[in-house]
Automatic annotation (TrEMBL):
Residues 53-195 form the Mur ligase central domain. It comes from the Bacteria. The lineage of its organism: Bacteria, Pseudomonadati, Pseudomonadota, Gammaproteobacteria, Oceanospirillales. This is Dihydrofolate synthase/folylpolyglutamate synthase. PANTHER family: DIHYDROFOLATE SYNTHETASE-RELATED, FOLYLPOLYGLUTAMATE SYNTHASE-RELATED. Coiled coil: none annotated.
Length: 436
């Protein structure tokens, strides 16, 4: 990879892509498949092995642990995830490193050339990004590609390629406008990444029956948590087992959900890789995932934005006691279940700072404050932005206090940027209202 493309060029391309399609989300494979065909992406596999990961929560942590496991086993890797926190480059990792601007620009140009080679095809920002990632991955031809499916499954752009192993992590109510308003419908959509005759890993104990039914109807051999594989906790370590007789003991806590860790191990084993206990222990000890239970001093940042994700965060915070107060700086989009998230987090939060987000789907600090007050929660301030809320909290925390930043990728990203560049993003208290 070279470094000829400047960040300015990449940012210009991304702005253009954001404005090119009339809607942000346009599920369906016909347009994507047409451009993929023109690009030659169907002429052969983009990688020796492909694992696709779908679900409501736990996709990012499963992908991160798969990447760490594969790397520790000496495999060349590529991973594609979305969305990003601070830089678009985060979405594509090649051998553990973020793709540079030049690699992304080359891939975007390849997509654009194919899109216009014949009758022009309109693509969304995510669809262009997915095709660009597949182009870059095929150029590397890694031993393992790990693809995080977007909000859907069956009609998601990532599903244009056939995975050797399909993983479904969890199913919860989210994106109802696109996936359905009941768990059975959402489960069927997510299960659409499965392929006949290829392993399907079911990574939750509470998946709706529709997921297993989808696997059986293909048929795809299903490997379910607590049935085909599982985990046992013991003091500070845990053990993984597989029904075939395999067992790996004394694995360190990766700081991410252990169900997802066990699922990552099962998925990698099902690609035909022989697991090394030493490599697995090293992978779990070294995995990192920005924005998921990410600790920066006394600040914990987590992008969870639905009740299921919030419940996991609450459980971990309860395990890690604190001598002082726990504040929550929360910013959420308007189409998310704010009441459910607040209810899940309220047992571990002493005081709240709701923050307004920007954009057409944004929810205001006042709206969040109203939700919090309905749940009997203490609102100590209302912030015009997550950065303003972080700035206000930094000046008022006692040494024993801690802060949870949560509710959205946008919230976590802005606070990470603000804390990394205080001179650029710090704001005075005129951005704060309703202090009590």
């Amino acid at each position: 990879m070279n470094e000829t493309a400047s960040p300015t060029e990449l940012e210009a391309w991304l702005r253009r892509l954001e404005a090119a399609h009339p809607v942000d989300i346009d599920l369906g494979l016909e347009r994507v498949a047409e451009v993929a065909q023109r690009m030659g992406l169907f002429d052969g596999p983009v990688a020796e092995r492909i694992i696709s990961v779908a679900g409501t929560n736990g996709k990012g942590s499963t992908v991160a642990m798969l990447e760490s496991l594969a790397s520790q086993h000496g495999l060349s890797t590529a991973t594609y995830t979305s969305p990003h926190l601070l830089r678009y480059n985060e979405r594509l990792h090649l051998n553990g490193q973020e793709a540079d601007d030049a690699t992304l620009m080359d891939a975007f140009r390849a997509v654009e050339a194919a899109r216009l080679a014949g009758e022009p095809v309109s693509l969304t920002y995510f669809e262009v990004g997915t095709l660009a990632a597949l182009h870059a991955i095929r150029s590397l031809s890694p031993q393992l590609a790990i693809l995080e499916v977007g909000l859907g499954g069956r009609l998601d752009a990532v599903n244009v390629v056939d995975a050797d192993v399909a993983v479904v992590t969890t199913i919860a109510l989210d994106h109802a406008a696109f996936l359905g308003d009941d768990l059975a419908s959402i489960g069927r959509e997510k299960a659409g990444i499965m392929r006949s005759g290829r392993p399907a890993v079911l990574g939750s104990r509470s998946l709706p029956a529709s997921v297993r039914e989808a696997a059986d109807s293909l048929p795809a051999p299903a490997f379910a948590l607590d049935e085909a594989y599982g985990l046992e906790q013991e003091a500070a370590t845990w053990h993984w087992w597989r029904r075939a007789g395999e067992r790996i003991t004394h694995l360190p806590d990766p700081g991410l959900p252990l169900d997802n860790a066990a699922t990552a191990l099962a998925a990698l084993a099902l690609t035909g890789i022989t697991l090394s206990p030493e490599a697995c222990r090293a992978a779990m000890a070294n995995v990192r995932l920005p924005g998921r239970m990410q600790w920066e001093g006394a600040w914990c940042l987590d992008v969870g934005h639905n009740p299921q994700a919030a419940a996991y965060v609450a459980t971990r915070l309860a395990e890690w006691g604190v001598a002082g107060k726990t504040y929550a700086l929360i910013g959420m989009l308007g189409d998310k279940d704010a009441d459910g998230v607040i209810e899940a987090l309220s047992p571990v939060i002493d005081a709240w700072v709701p923050a307004s987000l920007e954009g057409s789907r944004a929810r205001s600090a006042d709206d969040l404050a109203a939700c919090l007050l309905r749940h009997g929660q203490e609102v100590v301030a209302r912030a015009a932005s997550p950065a303003a809320g972080a700035h206000w909290l930094e000046g008022r925390l006692e040494p024993e206090d801690r802060v949870l930043v949560c509710g959205s990728f946008f919230t976590v990203a802005e606070v990470l940027a603000a804390r990394g560049n205080p001179a650029q993003t710090g704001r005075d208290d005129t951005s704060i209202e309703g202090m009590t």
